[in-house]
Design brief:
The structure is a homodimer. Chain A has 11 helices and no strands. By secondary structure, chain A is mainly α. Chain A has 2 domains: 59 residues, Homeodomain-like (Arc Repressor Mutant, subunit A, Orthogonal Bundle); 136 residues, Tetracycline Repressor, domain 2, CATH 1.10.357. The interface between A and B is large, with 39 and 39 residues.
């Protein structure tokens, strides 16, 4: 391979072109889906708008839902930044985690692409992998400081991951957003061993984005 | 329609034949899947064994996973009976619920068809609808007797439904069956407001099938 074909990041010209085509498909998909709603957009619409062939689409993605993945990752990073600002200056891991959960649940509820993705018939494991366990660091701190009482961490994480998706699904079925966000935080704190009364009080603290 | 074509249950001959074809497909599918493993069986194998055409299969089911539904319902009924026997004579709703959850989690783990169904990429809502909330009656009793402390019942049910599927998924990823069953019970009790120490003790009571 000639030196001219390779960038400093080690991408060949072929790889660069492939990445740029992929980005064009994702941008077209986002624009169309935010415009018309996810349901109304076909793969044909996306390939027309991105000016690529049908076959090219399938080189990069298997389904319409797959195109949403990089968008969801991007949203997810933005929301993690918002969580950091909401928890800024707070030291209690229980309060930090509660704020994080409430911000994330609201963010998913408010973004039509994210909500669609969550209710799109994606498998449970996919949903969990996509959403992750946002407040992982506060969880570690809470464990160290014995703020939390967790006998089996992997089992507890599986339990919470599932519960989180359960709550997102209830949003799609019409549950109130703020109440769902607060209840998610409250019940996660209970799972982590925070006494019921205290969990309720922590999960109702005002949220301030600093 | 002539009277001769209708049974006392109000089924026409056409409907009876359709139901019997469906049953034959389900039986063939179960036999093959228990024999060879779910993955190894194709729709073609099933239609061959049931002696029906490919088109006939699709009159009744959309996918291979769909054929498992009636089998899972049947297993589910059997397990509910086992739960009743395990909880026989116990009056504490927390202990009854804990026993019920542990029996159900073990049953799902032990049946290869049920486990496959749970990890088959079925959507989250489908999984929840299939599994239901087994200990619904004990939940009602626990609420009435203030054994449980639940501020928002629908939200709590969504949370538990999701958590339950999360735990089943962890089984498919290699988590220990008995430990997963016990942890599911323990964490559900925490969610219902049972203090952490007491929840741990209740979830470790021996299971006796009466």
């Amino acid at each position: 391979m000639s030196k001219e074909n390779t960038t400093e990041q080690g991408m060949t010209r072929f790889e660069r072109r492939k990445a740029s085509t992929r980005a064009r498909i994702v941008e077209a998909a986002e624009r169309l889906m935010r415009d018309r709603g996810v349901e109304a957009v076909t793969i044909q619409d996306i390939t027309d708008a991105a000016d690529v062939g049908h076959g090219t689409f399938y080189l990069h993605f298997k389904t319409k839902g797959d195109v949403l993945r990089p968008l969801i990752e991007h949203l997810s990073n933005q929301v993690h930044a918002r969580v950091d600002r909401a928890a800024h200056g707070e030291t209690d891991p229980a309060l930090r985690m509660s704020l994080g959960i409430r911000v994330v649940v609201r963010a998913i509820a408010e973004d039509p692409l994210w909500s669609w993705y969550a209710r799109s018939g994606a498998s449970f494991s996919e949903l969990v992998a996509q959403m992750g366990t946002p407040p992982a660091e506060d969880m570690r701190k809470g464990l160290k400081s014995s703020r939390f009482d967790i006998a089996n961490l992997p089992a507890t994480v599986s339990f919470i991951d599932g519960a989180f998706v359960g709550m997102i699904t209830s949003l799609n079925e019409g549950a109130d957003v703020d109440e769902t966000a607060d209840m998610t935080a409250e019940l996660v704190l209970r799972v982590f061993g925070v006494p019921a009364k205290e969990a309720a009080q922590i999960a109702r603290q005002p949220i301030e984005i600093h």
